[in-house]
Design goal:
By secondary structure, the protein is of the alpha+beta class. The protein is 28% helix and 26% strand. The chain has eight helices and 20 strands. An eight-stranded mixed beta sheet has the order 6-7-5-15-16-17-14-18. It has a six-stranded mixed beta sheet with strand order 9-2-1-13-20-19, with helices on one face. Strand 10 and strand 11 form a beta hairpin. The longest helix has 25 residues. The chain is globular, with a radius of gyration of 20 Å. It catalyses: glycine + O2 + H2O = glyoxylate + H2O2 + NH4(+). This is glycine oxidase. InterPro entries: FAD-dep_OxRdtase, FAD/NAD-bd_sf, Gly_oxidase_ThiO.
């Protein structure tokens, strides 16, 4: 469709919704974004890893290829966003290391490395001493691991601030209400107001399923708890790279922030719309991250929070149209919303223009058979 005077309503103000609203407005669409609390929810809680390779899992090669394509777009996306917003987007390019504590954890990482090698994504295997030479903060319980320099990270809160600023400068109108229903041309808000549009994009994360019947069963909330830590004087410095780890089979990660801080996460639970952090979740995260990075025992604990990732039956996002009368959707990104923002934006812009989506993004078509699979598998990695 022509962008001139075309009214687009975006439902959802997380990273995906804000990214699409900003870029569509910059391309000439008249964009309204509906969200009672934009730049909050799972996007606010997230760790900010851009890690398609270290998130890889056998059987999810399509998701890996989508993630690799998107992380390659991130430097240009961040530069463009920073220029449009007049403030940094928070991209970190130091890379990622993956650590294993026991022999079982090391065997699992070896299996992952072998799988990646078979599909043409080799990674460097390192012993414990080699890992500590890269990151002295890693403790003696770590027996070995992997170096993945192309898996990046971003400060999610810097990113959200830049997206909000860029969207406002591009002319996006923000409506501080919750949407309760969406069609291809109308969004209904919780106060009964209807907002008419030429096109509607549902990007409401874990709450997308309630907005259109075709999304029922395709998107569900997956709870994740995170901790935010701050470096204190005298404590051992935080790592420079993102550190992911397996500790007795349990995954944990620590993502650096400016000033020596860390975001530690993340638990994973299929418990509906529960956003209360639990004692057990916090205990497990602190125990496991201290096994890998002993110096964090002297850090300050600033924040404990939980968010709801939008899970899908096959762990791939949903990017496309919901039939001739339905809205466009960009949701179901699960653990990878921030990672997949650039490739999602390119696909959404193509859909709005009536063009073909990029070939790598076609696996995310909501009409794919696996999107209706009844088997749900939670991957803990």
């Amino acid at each position: 469709m022509s962008t001139k005077h075309t009214r687009l309503v975006v439902v959802g103000g997380g990273v995906i919704g804000l990214s699409c609203a900003w870029r569509a407005a910059a391309d000439g669409f008249a964009v309204t974004l509906v969200d009672a609390a934009p730049a909050s929810g799972a996007s606010w809680v997230a760790g900010g890893m851009l890690a398609p390779v270290t998130e890889a899992w056998p059987g999810e090669e399509a998701l890996l290829e989508l993630g690799v394509a998107s992380v390659a777009l991130w430097p240009e996306y961040a530069a463009r966003l920073g220029e449009a917003a007049g403030q940094p987007a928070g991209l970190r390019t130091e890379g990622t290391v993956v650590a294993a504590t026991g022999s079982g954890d090391r065997a699992e990482l070896d299996a992952l490395a072998a799988h990646l090698g078979r599909i043409g994504r080799p990674v460097e295997r390192l012993g414990g001493r080699e890992l500590r030479r890269l990151e002295p903060a890693i403790g003696p319980d770590v027996r070995g691991g992997l170096s993945v320099p192309d898996d990046l990270a971003v400060d999610n809160r810097m990113l959200l601030a830049a997206l909000r600023a860029a969207a406002e400068k591009a002319g996006v109108t923000f409506v501080a209400r919750n949407a309760v229903a969406a069609t291809g041309t109308t969004v209904t808000c919780d106060d009964g107001e209807e907002i008419a549009a030429d096109a509607v994009l549902v990007a409401a994360g874990a709450r997308s399923a309630a907005l259109h019947p075709a999304l029922d069963g395709l998107v569900r909330p997956v709870k994740g708890e995170i901790l935010r830590l701050a470096h204190r004087p005298g404590a051992f410095p935080a790592p420079v790279r993102t550190v992911r780890a397996l500790v007795d089979g349990r995954p944990v990660y620590a993502v650096p922030r400016d000033g020596g801080g860390l975001v530690v996460g993340a638990t994973q639970a299929d418990v509906g719309f529960d956003t209360e952090p639990t004692v057990g979740g916090v205990r497990d995260l602190l125990r496991d991250v201290e096994r890998v990075l002993p110096g964090v025992a002297e850090f300050a604990l600033l924040e404990v929070a939980a968010g709801l990732r939008p899970g899908s039956p096959d762990n791939l996002p949903l990017i496309g149209g919901l039939g001739p009368d339905g809205p466009l959707v960009a949701t179901g990104h699960h653990r990878n919303g921030i990672l997949l923002a650039p490739v999602t934006v390119e696909a959404v812009l193509a859909l709005l223009r009536g063009a073909q989506v990029p070939p790598v993004a076609r696996v995310a078509d909501p009409a794919r058979p696996t999107a209706r699979s009844t088997g749900r598998r939670e991957t803990a990695r």
